[in-house]
Amino acid sequence: MLRGLIKGDNAFVPTTALRVAVRNDVDVAALLVTEQGRVRGDADIVFHGAPAHPSGAVRLSAGEDGTVWLDADLAGVEEAVTGVLVVASTEEGALRDVRGLSVEAIGPDGATVVGYEVTDAGGETAMVLAELYRRSGGWKFRAVGQGYVDGLVGLAADHGVEVPEEAQEVAPEEALPEPEETLPEPRAPRAPEALPGAFKDAAPPAQIPARVPPVPAAVPAPLPVPDWPYDHLFEPHTLEGSGNDVLAVEGLPPGPVLVDLAVQTEGHTAVWTLTPGNKEEDLLVNSTKKDWRGRLLAVVPLDGRLRLKLSAAGPWHARVLPLAAARRLTEDALESWGPEVLLHTGEATDVAFHYRGDSNFIVDSYVLTGHKDPAKLPESRYPYINEIGRRREALPVPSGTILVHVQRADGPWRARLKQPSAAVAWLRRVRD
Fold this sequence. Notes:
The protein is mainly beta. It contains 2 helices and 29 strands. Strand 16 (269-274) and strand 17 (280-287) form a beta hairpin.
């Protein structure tokens, strides 16, 4: 027999294995809290990305018709845990837009023990619907209905979940600030740390510096990734010279391309894009490093003519490649030097960087998911990295197909994907 509670009511439930049904079409999580009302760590967050508590006492599963099931073996809950909070949240819209939002505890015999229907939800996007808690040697169910207009971040902070800054949600319509770029004063050049790898088909190291990674000798195959708008492929174009020059290639498909560049120098290296009127436009490289190398991201205009102005005090070697030659990010460490273009496909995560240079390190990214124009790049997204000197930084990236652009880096660096903490994964709604 259903015992319908109103907000604030509570009732005893049997200390047994209960099934808790949460309706209707909301994201559901459970927080296992101590008597202070706080989790002990990330392991006490049960959500779709981590659907089972390490104790095995609380499990989450999806049902039909928008119902989510939370199985709670109350007899098996650790003694240090005094309460299990049932949390609901929306990814879009507010909870007032959810029809039939309710939570219902069902016993082993399939009969409903107690239930609570939310009738007063407002603009909140997250809510503690109910709580199973210890009382007088047994367990009770409380209809809580406490909402949070600041969403999961506010709810998480109230219950002891450590919320990293990168987990804070950014509204899609928020204006993206332009990164401020501060270039250090020129200093005496020094040789960078040696890294393996070299240009294929390039001149010997005595003439042209090594390049990391090796450049593919043939046209790359189309990328088997979702939402990839840049299927135009072409044979790599090789350019060589010495000193100041204009890198010019005609007949390219319009859109973003990669430009591998290595310069043997002990002086200044700079690269600008050129307008159709041959005026300097975007400064892509500004370095005093010895034997500079990097992989630049450039956009070929609609006329198919790529033109870059190069200022170089020494011999140089360049190759123009399709964007499909971008290196893939994985959880394995990826070593490189200088600017680079990387590709991430998959769930939301963080890209961990270890930069060992002493000047600017600037990284931004582009969301390719949903982008349809092969002749353009989408707007770069916030957040970005803009720091100076040796450091470790992490760039959060959303799920989908993401281009990660190391825009400035005068030195060696390492990058890898790192698994987000349970707290970050929950707040970003990462699925298992």
